Structure formats: structure tokens, C-alpha cells
């Protein structure tokens, strides 16, 4: 140990980094964590937390619109964006302090500043040099903006969370989680939203039936969706209006343009290339099943891997690595049955295999679906429907996929994910008594086969 200041140096104070640091310290390791920005990483500062707060705020509009059907008279309403920003900032500041306190109470040494690697065991932070027996990269990700004419006129997702004022119109470019969520949120706040995606249908990798259902629901709400559409350039005129020129010759006029076409690992420019750490063309770090990189003393977790960029995944990876390095364990991370929710309006939640993936990997499957208006909509007059879906392996009756599009979908899918992790069969779902009247009971009453 004389050659090293620390057993472990963690680069990054996000979900993976803080979890790995504090768990390693609790197992007796001497740990330093380096972070140049606010604690909590993407999730706390420009990801899950502000996004969910904004999503909750956007859904208040539905409650106000639905109130009359339940006998409530709602007077004049107004939405104030600066108030939401101010309250969101206060909550994030509180969470930043919580993360700092967690590290302090765990005995982790926090080093403030931006790190570069000067060797397989050496980290530089400004004029300070740290030596660690092991280093773990938890450097997260950042929005990716391609180069195109007028790219200087557009914003990325991080910018939205500090936008001083909401525009009346916005074009959102992208078809993944972030684009669809932010398009829904902005529309909920009264912005006229047009979403552009180069593919034939957004949310590639999700269940296709759910993708179509969500697209129809978003259109019915008033979000304009342009598929098979590729922006070529963005221009700004003297009045401040933006013009998005499309590959087919059309042009869209708008007050702001948001590019949400993905995030890239934040791994460039910190010395990894010089050390020989293997990465792909986008900067995702290659690791083995113990999270070790091509340099034996360096490990990587979370969004730096660009696998499943989800907070619970990062937390699990950080826990496993800490116990393997300092607790004598030999755990391996499983990425099966990872549940996730898209906080669009309506929500889309999923766990396990899509119908398309199940058909490719199983000789025979059974698919059960249900589409219905939730009870609330019968009085509110809203026509929006919930979609629920179970995918079953016909060989052993196990439920291998569950999907939902509808209000609070993530809250419902979490319980289904527990059952699937335990290997529950469709017969066991059927034997479970539902809670009536709820939407959730539909998952245990779907007995009519839709298709095989």
C-alpha cells in the first residue's frame, strides 16, 4: 500500500460512482472520489429527477381538464415556467447536498475538480496528483449533437432544464427516450410541438405494438409527429424565428429547436487513449464481465459503458464491483428483466422481451393483449385508452415480456418485474386475484389469447 494513496479512486459523482465509492469504503477500502460538477451526475441534475418533476407538472394539465366530469369547477388557470424552474432547482440542490453527505459519512475523500489519467494508477486533478491501486471510470455521458448547417442555433436536452422562458413553438429532433419524453412534457406545458425522426416509427427497440399505440395517443393529444424525416439545416432570421429545412424540401418554422438524438459516453480527453483503454468509436469503454478494462487496474461502470443507461443499472453495477473488489465476492451483473419506463404522455413501461424479440428467440410464444378506457376517462370524457400486453413462452408457460402504455405505467410494471424475476408463469398470473377496480388487475385477468 505504500505506493498508493488510495485503494480506489472513483472518477465521477453520479449514481454508479457514489454507490461504488461508498460501498467500497464500507468494506474497508480507502476511497477518493473526484467530481468537478454538482454531485448526483446526469440523473439528479439533468436527467431522471428534473425530467420526472417536469413530467408530473405537465400532467397537471390533464387533471385540470378532467375535473369537470367529476363535478369540480376550475376557474382560470395559468402556468408559470419560472416558478417550476425555481422549485426544481431547490430540489436538485437538496439532492446534491444529500449525495455529498452520503460520501462524507461513508469516509470517502471527495476531491473537487476535473480529472485526467496520467498513468494506470495516477489521476491528476489540477495541480494535485492521486495514486490509486485501482481506478474506476464513472464519468457518465453527455448529449450528442451532430455537425450540420445551423447547429449553433439548436439546444440539447441539458439546456432545456435551465431554459429561461418557454417558446410558443418547438421542433424536437430525435426518436429515443429523451426526445419523446421532452416532446410530451413541452406539449403538456402548452408548447406547440413537432417531433422529427428519421425512422418510420420512434422508440426503436421497444415493443412495436406499444410504439404504435403511443404514437397514436400523442397525435390525438396534438403532438405533430414527422417520421421518415431528416433535417438538413437550421436557419435563423432577423425576427428570431427558426426555419428547419428538411431533406424532402419542406421547411418548418418554429421558435426553438431541440436536438435529442442520443448521448455519448463522457470519456474523451481524459487520458484513456494514451493508456490504451479500449473504446468503441463513440467512446463507450470495453470491459469484461468484472467491469475491468483492457488496462488491468482500471474499471468502468454506468453510462461510460453505454449499455443500459439507467440509474438502477448503474447502482447495481457499482454495488457488484465494490463487493467483488473489497468484499471477496464474485458476482456478475445480469441485464435480464430490467424494467424501464418512458415518461411520455401517456407513459410506456416495459420489462423483459418485446414480442418481436421473443419471436426471434423462442420456437413458439403466446401473446395476450388488452386495450380499454380506464375508469377515470369514462367520466372525464377523455377517449385515450390503456394498452397492456403479456408475452409468454409456450414451452414452459413463463411470462417473458410485459408491456403497458397508460397512466402510471411504471408503477404497475415494477410489480410485474418482481414476478418475472421469480420466473412466474402465465398460470400463476391467472391464479393471482386482482385488485378491483384498478387498471393493474388487467395483468392477472388477461386470459383470452390474442395471437401465437
Note the main attributes of this structure.
13 helices, alpha/beta, 32% helix, FAD/NAD(P)-binding domain, single chain, Enolase-like, domain 1, 452 residues, globular
Number of domains: 3
Please report the first level of CATH classification, the CATH class of the largest domain. Alpha Beta
Which outline best applies?
globular
Number of helices: 13
> Helicity, in percent?
25-40%
Strand content: 15-25%
Describe this protein's structure.
There is one protein chain. The chain is an alpha/beta fold. The chain folds into 3 domains: 200 residues, FAD/NAD(P)-binding domain, CATH 3.50.50.60; 111 residues, FAD/NAD(P)-binding domain (3-Layer(bba) Sandwich); 105 residues, FAD/NAD-linked reductase, C-terminal dimerisation domain (Enolase-like, domain 1, 2-Layer Sandwich), CATH 3.30.390.30. It contains 13 helices and 22 strands. The strands form 5 sheets. Strands 1, 2, 3, 4, 5, 6 and 17 form a 7-stranded mixed beta sheet that branches. β21 and β22 form a beta hairpin. α1 runs parallel beside α9, α3 runs antiparallel to α4 and α3 packs across α6.
Describe how the helices and strands are arranged.
Layout lengths: L5 E6 L3 H12 L4 E5 L5 H6 L1 H19 L14 H26 L2 E4 L2 E5 L2 E4 L2 E10 L3 E3 L11 E2 H4 L8 E5 L3 H12 L3 E5 L11 H14 L2 E3 L4 E6 L5 E5 L4 E4 L2 E3 L3 E3 L6 H4 L22 E3 L10 H16 L13 E3 L5 E5 L2 H7 L3 E8 L2 H6 L5 E8 L5 E7 L3 H13 L4 H6 L21
Parallel strand pairs: 1-2, 1-6, 2-3, 6-17, 8-15, 9-10, 9-15, 10-11
Antiparallel strand pairs: 4-5, 5-6, 7-16, 12-13, 13-14, 18-19, 19-22, 20-21, 21-22
Helix pairs in contact: 1-4, 1-9, 3-4, 3-6
Amino acid at each position: 500500500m505504500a505506493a498508493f494513496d488510495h485503494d480506489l479512486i472513483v472518477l465521477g459523482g453520479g449514481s454508479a460512482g457514489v454507490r461504488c465509492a461508498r460501498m467500497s469504503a464500507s468494506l474497508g477500502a480507502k476511497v477518493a472520489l473526484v467530481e468537478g460538477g454538482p454531485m448526483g451526475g446526469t440523473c439528479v441534475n439533468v436527467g431522471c429527477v428534473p425530467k420526472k418533476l417536469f413530467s408530473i407538472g405537465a400532467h397537471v394539465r390533464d387533471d385540470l381538464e378532467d375535473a369537470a366530469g367529476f363535478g369540480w369547477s376550475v376557474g382560470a388557470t395559468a402556468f408559470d415556467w419560472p416558478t417550476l424552474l425555481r422549485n426544481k432547482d431547490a430540489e436538485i440542490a437538496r439532492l446534491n447536498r444529500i449525495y455529498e453527505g452520503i460520501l462524507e459519512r461513508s469516509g470517502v475523500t471527495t476531491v473537487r475538480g476535473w480529472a485526467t489519467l496520467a498513468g494506470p494508477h495516477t489521476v491528476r486533478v489540477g495541480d494535485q496528483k492521486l495514486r490509486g491501486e485501482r481506478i474506476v471510470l464513472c464519468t457518465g455521458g453527455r448529449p450528442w449533437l451532430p455537425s450540420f448547417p445551423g447547429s449553433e442555433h439548436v439546444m440539447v436536452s441539458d439546456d432545456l432544464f435551465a431554459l429561461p422562458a418557454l417558446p410558443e413553438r418547438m421542433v424536437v429532433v430525435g426518436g429515443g427516450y429523451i426526445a419523446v419524453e421532452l416532446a410530451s412534457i413541452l406539449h403538456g406545458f402548452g408548447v406547440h410541438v413537432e417531433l422529427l425522426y428519421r425512422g418510420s416509427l420512434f422508440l426503436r427497440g421497444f415493443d412495436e405494438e406499444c410504439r404504435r399505440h403511443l404514437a397514436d395517443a400523442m397525435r390525438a393529444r396534438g403532438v405533430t409527429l414527422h417520421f421518415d424525416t431528416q433535417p438538413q439545416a437550421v436557419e435563423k432570421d432577423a425576427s428570431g424565428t427558426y426555419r428547419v429545412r428538411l431533406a424532402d424540401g419542406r421547411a418548418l418554422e418554429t421558435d426553438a429547436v431541440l436536438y435529442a438524438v442520443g448521448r455519448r459516453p463522457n470519456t474523451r480527453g481524459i487520458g484513456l487513449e494514451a493508456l490504451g483503454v479500449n473504446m468503441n468509436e463513440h467512446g463507450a469503454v470495453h470491459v469484461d464481465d468484472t467491469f475491468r478494462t483492457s488496462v488491468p487496474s482500471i474499471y468502468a461502470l454506468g453510462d461510460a459503458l453505454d449499455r443500459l443507461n439507467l440509474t438502477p443499472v448503474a447502482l447495481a453495477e457499482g454495488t457488484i464491483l465494490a463487493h467483488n473488489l473489497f468484499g471477496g465476492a464474485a458476482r456478475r451483473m445480469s441485464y435480464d428483466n430490467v424494467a424501464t419506463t418512458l415518461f411520455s404522455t401517456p407513459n410506456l413501461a416495459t420489462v423483459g422481451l418485446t414480442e418481436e424479440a421473443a419471436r426471434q428467440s423462442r420456437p413458439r410464444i403466446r401473446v395476450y393483449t388488452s386495450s380499454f378506457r380506464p375508469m377515470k376517462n369514462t367520466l372525464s370524457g377523455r377517449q385515450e385508452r390503456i394498452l397492456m400486453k403479456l408475452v409468454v413462452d409456450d414451452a414452459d408457460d413463463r411470462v417473458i415480456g410485459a408491456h403497458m402504455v397508460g397512466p402510471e405505467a411504471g408503477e404497475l410494471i415494477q410489480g410485474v418485474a418482481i414476478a418475472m424475476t421469480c420466473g412466474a408463469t402465465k398460470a400463476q398470473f391467472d391464479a393471482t386475484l386482482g385488485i378491483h377496480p384498478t387498471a393493474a388487475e388487467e395483468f392477472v385477468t388477461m386470459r383470452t389469447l390474442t395471437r401465437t
